[in-house]
Here is the input.
Amino acid sequence: MFLSAGTLVLAYWLISIAGGEESYMVARECLSTIPAKMLLGLSVFSFYFHLCNGVRHLFWDIGAGFELKTLYATGYAVIASSLLLTALTWGYAMAQGAAP
Amino acid sequence: MSLEADIAKVRGLGSAKEGTGHFWHQRLTAIALIPLSIWFVVNLVCVFDATYAEVTAWIQSPIVTTLLVALIGALLYHVKLGVQIVIEDYLHAEWLKLSSIICLNLGTVLCGLVSIVAILKISFGTN
Here is the structure.
């Protein structure tokens, strides 16, 4: 539900670019504030969590990974890998010269 | 007039009356979104602080335009399918469930169309 709200932000961002330089600068200003950046960071983590758990569900769909031990292991792996992927994405953005 | 027996028409469709279509489309869009969304998120955090000229140049590249339109289509359909499940599972009043699903359908279609029009406007624009 939280992630689907992100599609609205994405739509706003695209509209602002389509609207020309002026509206883009307004959007950039809004999205660069600290609360906005925190929400965006949270969205990136939610996205990776959804992605990893989604892949886990796809494996369940083909009938794999239902043993209790595997269930717990993949559960923790989902949390660990989504944290790692968020950190990697953030690090990559920093390396490309983005402000924190 | 169909010669098919009534039982043959409904067999396999289940209580939702649409068979496994919803389930299958959700998986299909999920698989399509794995590469598309990773590509997008990684690129987005890079163009996020970019100037107007840099962002438009990025979107105007034909491959980026194509992938963005594909992403928006798959993403909004995936959102529609996913949120519909949440509504069906947690809203029990029939009128509320129905009106929420109508809003969801109209909302996701509108959001998708607006995004795609914006992408194409940027892509074909002269600025």
Chain B has a mean pLDDT of 90. Helices of chain B lie at 6-10, 21-47, 52-60, 62-90, 94-124. Chain B is about 80% helix and 0% strand.
